[in-house]
Amino acid sequence: MTSLLETPAVAAELRRLAEDGALDLPLPGGGHTGDRWSALADLGGRDLALARLAEGHTDALAVLAEAGRDPAPGALYGVWAAKSGGTGARLAGGELSGTVRFCSGAHFLDRAVVAAGDHLVEVDLARAGITRDEESWQAIGMAASDSADVTFHGVPVEPGEIIGPPGWYVSRSGFARGGCGVAAVWLGGCDGVVGYVTAHLRARDHVDEHQLAHLGAMHTAIRAAEAVLRQAAHAIDEGTDTDPPRTAATCRAAVERATTEVLDRAPKVTGPTPLCRDRDFAQRLADLLVYVRQHHAERDLAALGRTVLDGVDQ
């Protein structure tokens, strides 16, 4: 298993996958949601930076399809919707302004679906008035995802570039399903780490019981979270998912829990040598640590707990 590591290689591979049709995944809710999430998990097991960009592209295509729109031919897409630290885009007077953080693929994507207040806008990223902050991403983890702060300086927006009515982006059922797709990528990242750990142990002359116990615990956590995703995909496709936001929150929490297990236990199995002498392993752990923090830990768990307390059992 090797990591692509550098942004240019990731960008080239993403475009190759798109051109080969490998990113033309089944739409969520269309009867093959589990296959969609499995494909995203496979990408996560290969390389999380690549998978992050692939997930964004496929999510954008799903958003456009749900709105009854066709994507621009051959274009690589992203979904830029973060509102971190009081930042975010806004649409006023027919112009798009403001700064959006965590815009993966900031320098090489062709188009982006941008959340601007209550509006959603499709933006051609080659237009004037769009700048990228080269210094905004300082982390080692997910560095190859080319995630930067992007600022829109009064970019003109035509009516046809606005997707759906105000509030449509977050109110649609596909919003929750997209969150499950992200969790599938996290889970694939976990599989990639555990695959490395398994190979590490097989290459050793002696494996102790503590290492085996950690490996067993990681395997169990991953397979349990995978079962939660599989059950959710089935309910979505069968039309029996009565609370999509709660389902998504449960899936994301289950995978976050598994990820925490993997991040804690994997270095205990390997010891410090691969962390210091194997860039692939160290990068996988760093990428996974950063990416999974899209889940807001106890804050998201508390919100989920509130729905359980106030709602009807599923």
TrEMBL record:
Keywords: FAD, Flavoprotein, Oxidoreductase. It holds the Pfam family Acyl-CoA_dh_1. Residues 167-290 form the Acyl-CoA dehydrogenase/oxidase C-terminal domain. It comes from the Bacteria. Belongs to the acyl-CoA dehydrogenase family. PANTHER family: DEHYDROGENASE, PUTATIVE-RELATED (PTHR48083:SF37), MEDIUM-CHAIN SPECIFIC ACYL-COA DEHYDROGENASE, MITOCHONDRIAL-RELATED (PTHR48083). This is Acyl-CoA dehydrogenase family protein.
